[in-house]
Amino acid sequence: MADQQQPWRAWPRLAVHLALLPLALLIFDAATGRLSVNPIQDMTLRTGKAALALLMLSLACTPLNRLLGWKWAVALRKPLGLYSFLYVCLHLLVFAVADYRLDPALIGQAIAEKRYVLAGLASFALLLPLALTSTRGAMRRLGRWWRRLHRLVYAAAALAVLHYLWLSKVWREPALWGVALVILLLARLPIVRPPRAHGDRHRFLLPGAQAQHPQISPERHLQQSKIRNPQSKMASAAPSSGSARPARAQGHPDAGGEPPQQAQHGEHGPRPVDQRRRPQGARQQQGDDPAHDEQALPELRPEPPGPALSHQIAGAPGDDQE
Q1: How far is CA 273 from CA 19, 84, 175, 263, in A?
Q2: Number of structural domains, the chain?
Q3: Do the beta carbons of residue 282 and residue 276 sit within 8 Å?
Q4: What separation, in Å, do the N-terminal and C-terminal C-alpha atoms of the chain show?
Q5: 254-304 per-position pLDDT tens digit
Q6: Burial bucket for residue 39 (CB in 10 Å: 0-12, 13-18, 19+)
Q7: Count of alpha carbons within 13 Å of 80, Cβ hemisphere only?
Q8: What's the CA gap between 79 and 75, in Å, rounded?
Q9: Of 94, 82, 83, nearest to 45 (Cα)?
Q10: Where are the alpha helices (DSSP H) in 16-103?
Q11: Per the domain annotation, does 145 fall within a domain?
Q12: Suppose 29 and one of 21, 34, 140, 270 were both cysteines; which one would form an S-S bond, judging by CB atoms 3.0 to 4.6 Å apart?
C-alpha cells in the first residue's frame, strides 16, 4: 500500500520542474531563429509572463490547502517562488544587458521617464530578500520575523501586475492578471473558513464574529467527560440515592455486602440521624442535661430490672453468701 501511494505523493514535486519548460522553449527558439522580428521584446515578454504566472501559482498554494485541503500544494510554494524569481532575473537581465547594453545613463533615464520600469524594479527589490531567505537556516535565524518578511510577496505581486499594466498597450490581459491576484488575496483573508474534516462545527464565519459552539447532547457530553477525567466515569457508575440498588449495595444478607447505611455513606461517612432526637440547639438550651433527655425521650429510657429469683441467687456459683 505504501508503494502505491508513493508515486501519488511524489508527482507534484516532480511536476513543479515543468516550470523550466518556458525557458527551454525560449532557448530553443533563440537557437533556431524562431523568435519574432523584435527578438529582445519577445524575450522580455516571454520571461516576464512566465515570472508572473509562476508567482501567481505560488500564491495559490495556500488557498488550495485551506479551501480544498490539498496539503501537497503547500510543498510547492518554495520551488514555484524560486522559479518565478529565476524568470524575474532573466527578465531584468534581458532589459539591462540585451536592451540597454549595461549603460547606467540609459538605465537611469529609463527609470526616471518610464513608470513601468520603476514598478518592475521595485517588485524585483521586494522579491530579492525573499529569495535569499528561503533556506531553512534563514528561517531558524529569523524566527517569527521570517513570516513577516515573506508577506512582502503580496506587494511584489501587485507591483508586477502594475508593471505589466503600464507596459502593455492593451489592458485586457493585465486586467485579468489583476483580477486573479485580487481573488487569491481575498482567499487568504479569514472571511470564509473551510469546513473541518471532523466534528460538527461546519460553518462559515464572518470577520469579527465569534464561533458559537454547537449544542452537545447529554450523552455526548458525558462521553467526553469520561475521556477527559476517568474519575467521572467511576462516579457516574455509582447508583444514586433515589435509584434502585442491587442486593449487594443494599447489604443483602445473601449477597454478603455492607449494611445499607455504610454502603451509602462509606466507612467514614456521617452517621444516620435519629429522627426521634431533639435538635442540637434545643439541647444546648437545656444545658445538655441527661435527665432532661430521658424525660423528653421516655421510649429510649432503659427499663428497670425485675426482682431476682431466689433460686437463681441461691444457686449462683461463686457468689458470696451473706
Answers
A1: 87, 85, 88, 16
A2: 1
A3: no
A4: 107
A5: 444 444 444 444 445 455 554 455 555 444 444 444 444 444 444 444 555
A6: middle
A7: 21
A8: 8
A9: 94
A10: 21-32, 39-68, 77-93
A11: yes
A12: 34
- In this prediction the pTM is 0.59
The C-alpha cell at 39 is 527578438
Cell numbers linked to 71: 496539503
186 pLDDT tier (thresholds 50, 70, 90): very high
AA letter at 229? N
- Residue 30, classed as helix, strand or coil, is helix
Q: Which residue in 9, 8, 15, 80 sits closest to 50, CA to CA?
A: 80
Q: 224 in a domain, yes or no?
A: no
Which spans in the chain are helix H? Answer: 2-15, 21-32, 39-68, 77-93, 104-113, 115-132, 136-142, 144-149, 152-167, 172-188, 218-228, 230-237, 260-265, 280-285, 290-296, 310-314
Distance CA 181, CA 157 (A): 8
C-alpha cell at 131: 529569495
Cβ neighbours for 27, distance < 8 A, ≥ 6 positions apart: none
C-alpha cell at 74: 503547500
Backbone angles phi, psi at 191, to 5 degrees: -80, -45
Grid cell locating 271: 452517621
Domain residue limits at 110: 14-188
